Amino acid sequence: MADTPTSQTAEIAAPASTQAEQVHEVVIVPDVRHGPNDDGDADSTYEVPPESTASLRSSILEFQTENGRTYHSLSAGKYVLPNDEASRVPILIRSGNALDPMIHEYTLSQESERLDIVHNLNFLTYDYRLALCPKNNGAKRVLDMGTGTGVWAVDYADAHPEAEVIGVDLSPIQPNFVPPNVRFEIDDLEKEWTWAHKFDFIFCRSLSGSFPDWEPVLQKVYDQLEPGGYFEIQDGAFPVGTDDNTIPRDSALLRWCNLLVEASGNLGRPVDQVYNYSTIMRKIGFVDCVDRDFKWPTNTWPKNKRFKEMGMWSLAALDAGLEGLSMALLTRGLNWTMEETLAFCVNVRREMRDPRIHAYWPVHVAYGRKPENAPAAATAEDTST
């Protein structure tokens, strides 16, 4: 078991009127009403154009079902989070001892709901910016890797009607009615990238644990960018942190973090590589790389109004996605049963809702630029002639 995380220093996004690189050291102050000794209640159109290698077959739309959740069928098994978008499934499980059993009713929320909540949380965190790099404005051709529900791509396209935005994902869970300058493609980013044209901005978010090795993926990103183009990645990190050591050493929440790291490692797609992104980017050739760190409170324990609101959205996101985040990793990576996983989530959820535990989720943003004098890589159009 890893030791309780020590105090960390984070940065908050600079106000819109300042430069993006300006940062402020911050320690989140807890609401005094929730102190450690508080005895209160603890509790578009889917398109695969000719330039893409994937074809949108009917089998892609036939999602795989596992432990009550649905998962992508294209390149099945690569991504461990579900893609539910239709129903909520009530499940009753029993925990406690035989003399004093507790019955818990679970509602397995759709993953698409969680993704949209996280989008709103990111928007709030970065002072209502969709990106922190200079391409927050001014991009002409944009790729959104792992677009999920497509909400980021749609928002960027709405804000920048002059830009062409492409969102790509393993699952076809994006909307049909979208701005005319955005389209979605169903494809596997680990396979060969065959877009005939370069992008001046490539973006991705929440893809930790998606790839066995980030270097070949980021090499594809670099090659697909035009000189002077930017790449930005926004991702959550493990484990949960604290500034005042209010996370118990026997914390279920901390154990959950450690188990997810262990399980993802066993599956060959580790979730603990977030802080390596910029190192790999520099190795490949990116310049002007910037790292930014933020904190998402686990619930509404902070005193500061802005952090309290962030905590509300953070709790809503994990409340909606706890079982989805846990199920495939723990059952595939650690051979847990569905019942064991759901029972464990009872204790994790109890702690993440407890305002006496002043915990936060570390969030990391890295971005960099492809040099203007970078040699051009061959495109699919070049190699086909």
UniProtKB/TrEMBL annotation:
The domain of life is: Eukaryota
Cite the InterPro entries for this sequence.
Answer: SAM-dependent_MTases_sf
Q: Which GO terms describe its molecular function?
A: methyltransferase activity
Residue segments, region Disordered: 1-53
Which residue intervals are annotated with compositional bias (Polar residues) in the record?
1-21
| Stored Pfam families | Methyltransf_23 (PF13489)
Its family remark reads: Belongs to the methyltransferase superfamily. LaeA methyltransferase family.
Annotated protein name in UniProt:
Methyltransferase domain-containing protein
This chain's source organism reads Verticillium longisporum (Verticillium dahliae var. longisporum)
